[in-house]
Amino acid sequence: MPTSIIEKTRSSFLQQDVNLSKYTTWNIGGPASYFCEPGTIAELKRGLNYADEMGLEWRVIGNGSNLLVADSGFDGLIVRVGPKFADHSVNGDVLDVKSGAPLYKLADVANDYRCSCFNFVTGIPGTIGGGVTMNAGAFGYEVSDFLTKVTYLSENGEVKEMDVLDDFFEYRNSPFLYSGEIVLRAEFRLDRSSHQPSMSEILSTRRSKMPYSLPSAGSIFKNPSKADKTAGEMLDIVGAKGMRVGDAVVSHQHANFILNDGHATAANVQNLIDILQERVYKEFGVTLVTEVEVI
Ligand SMILES: Cc1cc2nc3c(=O)[nH]c(=O)nc-3n(C[C@H](O)[C@H](O)[C@H](O)COP(=O)(O)OP(=O)(O)OC[C@H]3O[C@@H](n4cnc5c(N)ncnc54)[C@H](O)[C@@H]3O)c2cc1C
User: Is residue 158 annotated as part of the catalytic site, yes or no?
Assistant: First the structure.
């Protein structure tokens, strides 16, 4: 690409040295050398082309609610697929949502159609793209339960569609995690046979069990598949609650949450994660795997 086009792309669209702490729910993280927030597929491709031409590494993020960004930041391009990429439409029993929309939009829109099948996402602060990629879930349901089709940008820049089959998605895992593909849109089925508690009931249940008053990234560790206890239960038993490194502290309410109690750094959090993993391994012989992703 001629230098003039590179310069034009940069000046009109890309920001430089953007502090990522304001784009993570933990409020932690150093700067990204380049950052863009596309509103269209063309803009998204423009950002990726720029990264390609400049030999930059790139990563896509949504609402940053499952991310631990290093204090040194990210030397490359961060593409944030968020509120600028967030329309939705309903056609019969099909809800089609762009990947930057917040997850709660599913529940909001479905409720307008007297359908409670997405109420379980209430209180999960991610985007559709992050929710599909992480296969977010709560109260026994997962995003993939009602997902029928995903439109994505393939690694070589083509817009493709995937019909969702049951065995494509697992607990907090999907074909899109670490794949280099970007979720653009998702189609969901409005399932009126699923009767879930109301959004406000779900929110108050969550608030009674999980800390919402300080910044966090939700559950730190996945629940181990072969153990008879959850990660939170094991952490509770090894005395994790209240443990602290710097301003990173394990919640007294839920042992699987690390909170930012002021000015926690990514190093503080990582240190605490290491200590917790070691304690659980010593007591239970189980290696806890992080649900939170590190950039
Ligand atoms: C208070 C709190 C409570 C939470 N409760 C829950 C819960 O009950 N259940 C649960 O499952 N999670 C929970 N989470 C974690 C988090 O909200 C979910 O994992 C959510 O789905 C992450 O979405 P995000 O948009 O923030 O993704 P990010 O954190 O920005 O990114 C997460 C991953 O998704 C990828 N990604 C994001 N957008 C796209 C895209 N468009 N295309 C391709 N890849 C993409 C990123 O590259 C990264 O790998 C909680 C978090 C908090 C802070």
Answer: no
